Amino acid sequence: WKKNRYVSDTMAFGSKALFLISLQCARLSTIEGFVVQSPRLDHTSPPTTASHRLPNSNFPLKNVYDDWRSDAVVDTMVLDEENIKMCLEEFIDSDYGKTMFGKHDVPAQYDITGEIEFVELCGPEVSLRLRGAFWHRRDTVLGRAAMWLNARMPEITDVYVDDPEDIKDFEDVIDEFSGEVLYQNDKRAPDFNGDRATMEYQGIDPDMRGPFPPGAGSFTINPA
Question: What is the mean pLDDT of residues 33-49?
Answer without folding.
Answer: 34
